[in-house]
UniProtKB/TrEMBL annotation:
Keywords: Membrane, Transmembrane, Transmembrane helix. It comes from the Bacteria. CDD domains: PP2Cc (cd00143). Residues 7-246 form the PPM-type phosphatase domain. This is SpoIIE family protein phosphatase. InterPro entries: PPM-type-like_dom_sf, PPM-type_phosphatase-like_dom, WG_beta_rep. Residues 361-390, 490-536 are annotated as: Disordered.
């Protein structure tokens, strides 16, 4: 099968950020109809050089593809390319330790004789449209998608969720290799569109709007400009995209490369939706491996595209239904009971330690990778290798918050509760009255009379009365165990006692599989939120 494309059209704009951390490949204006692969990456990290991360990614993948050409881009092939890119991240971080915390999402479209391969990491997306309709798209690696899939929150709640900007995978180096989701698409036809974009585009462009624009009779240049006009001066984030239309297809897909079509069902859209949120299976962390053989037929060598100059380093409530009958009331009660049981099941499942061989996840808010410890307080072994995080306990406990009692309180101890507000989590007493005036992003479960909390993206601890025991000053913090907790501050890992004082590290901690406590998603990240960080 030979795939011919029309002139590819790419764009990348700074939007409402102080600098542009997105990178697209090829550079806007440099793509030709002979180009086989396209990338859109959204840098993460702000002052931690998110733009450098996205640049290293697009250039690193391009170099690998040019130097290691293949007939079909399979999962194994792309994983090798990703490993190479992560090695480049590690090398850069060795030479620039101040950049620890940089990371990037990835969307990749690769045309070949089996059709096209799509790979992605994070919440940037790839759409496949035909006759003005979305027929497939990637699924965001985001926390709200997991919560929606688990039935914890609704689509309306997802749009206003305090952690809606958290993603769960990113390329960052310094950790176990992250895995991309990979899908080979055999069914591509003349006239089909592929649209790769960062989440900044999705601030203003919904699935419906995209369908209307790409289904119109305008030229591709006009369609591109319409999408740009939807975002210019209206987005808080950088916004970047590539629009690629299939011109012609010659020949058939070789039998060895035939794969099942992807399963896709678009969620029902909200009438006023401007941000499209898609549900994703929370257990789906390892992409399926295509069982294919590489052909030996040589393919023409693709000339590398001129590299982009590396940027200079820089420090950079939903109305209730009208209940008028006992039958309806009983139905709702039964539904709530089912949700409660399901919520408990999900919570208990989430609290289990990570099994060996699980694909790792990276939690990242739209301006940083969210380095949070595991929910059970026991981090995986091999602290020097670093691993990636799972959503924190407070997030999963939101199950109780969403389907729980009228007061919305979640018990922490016998006399201490937490309650979620628009600003975050607050501490309340048994009557629901707030204790103190502090608001936290995260409040975890008690462990040895200490409760880990996050405030202003820094971790600390409170006691069982809700009083500050150790100030919020750590980039990451584990639960207490055997009288001490493992923390990270300013890139340094060490243990502290219940007063917050450093304690000497025991030699067995780094050697014992049961006691070593690496931190997920390292390197440590600077405190930032999507709304106010300088970049992304």
């Amino acid at each position: 099968m030979n795939v011919f494309i029309q002139q590819p059209l790419g764009y990348s704009y700074q939007g409402g950020r102080s600098n542009n951390e997105d990178n697209i490949f090829p550079v806007a204006g440099e793509a030709t109809v002979g180009q086989r692969w396209f990338m859109v990456c959204d840098g993460v990290g702000g002052a931690a050089r998110g733009e450098i991360a996205s640049h290293i990614a697009v250039e690193g993948f391009n170099d690998y593809f040019v130097q290691n050409q293949t007939e079909v881009a399979t999962s194994d092939y792309l994983q090798l390319a990703l490993d190479s890119v992560q090695a480049q991240f590690d090398d850069y971080l060795t030479r620039h330790p101040e950049a620890h915390g940089m990371a990037t999402t990835l969307t990749l479209l690769f045309f070949h004789e089996a059709g096209a391969t799509v790979a992605h990491i994070g919440d940037s997306r790839v759409y496949h449209l035909r006759d003005g309709n979305v027929i497939w798209r990637t699924e965001d690696h985001s926390l709200v998608n997991q919560l929606m899939k688990a039935g914890v929150i609704t689509r309306e709640e997802a749009r206003e969720h305090p952690q809606r900007n958290v993603i769960e995978r990113a390329i960052q180096g310094g950790s176990k290799a992250v895995k991309p989701d990979v899908q080979i698409l055999n069914d591509i036809r003349p006239g089909d569109y592929f649209f790769l974009c960062t989440d900044g585009v999705l601030e203003r462009v919904s699935d419906e709007l995209l369908e209307n624009v790409l289904g119109s009779k305008e030229s591709n240049e006009q369609k591109k400009q319409t999408l740009i006009d939807c975002c210019i001066g209206k987005t808080k984030d950088n916004f970047s995209a590539y629009l690629v239309q299939i011109d012609a297809i010659r020949g058939d897909v070789p039998e060895a490369y035939r794969v099942s079509a992807p399963i896709y069902a678009r969620p029902q859209a909200l009438p006023d939706e401007t941000i499209a949120v898609v549900a994703v299976d929370s257990k789906r962390t390892v992409p399926a491996q295509e069982n294919v053989l590489f052909q030996t037929t040589p393919i023409p060598k693709v000339d590398p595209i001129k590299k982009q100059p590396l940027l200079d380093d820089r420090e950079n409530d939903k109305p209730r239904p009208d209940i008028n009958s006992i039958v309806l009331l009983l139905t709702i009660a039964l539904f709530a009971a089912v949700l409660t049981v399901g919520g408990i099941y999900v919570y208990n499942w989430w609290k289990q330690p990570a099994e060996a061989g699980k694909a790792e996840q990276v939690a990242a808010d739209h301006g940083k990778v969210n380095n949070r410890p595991r929910t059970d307080g026991k981090l995986p072994p091999n602290s020097t290798k670093k691993t990636t995080p799972i959503p924190d306990a407070a997030t999963v406990e939101g199950i109780t918050q969403t389907i729980g009692g009228e007061d919305g309180k979640i018990e922490i101890t016998r006399n201490l509760y937490k309650k979620q507000t628009e600003s975050g989590w607050i501490l309340v007493n048994e009557k629901g009255r707030q204790k103190g005036d502090k608001v936290y992003e995260v409040i975890r479960e008690p462990s040895e009379e200490r409760i880990a909390v996050m405030q202003n993206n820094k971790w600390g601890y409170i006691n069982l009365k809700g009083q500050t025991a150790i100030a919020c000053k750590f980039d990451m913090a584990d639960d207490f165990e055997d009288g001490k907790a493992h923390v990270v501050r300013n890139g340094k890992e060490y243990d502290i006692d219940k007063k917050g004082e450093p304690v000497k590290e025991t030699p067995s901690r780094a050697e014992s599989e049961n006691h070593s406590k690496p931190f997920d998603g390292t390197p440590a990240l600077p405190p930032a939120t999507k709304g106010d960080e300088p970049g992304r």
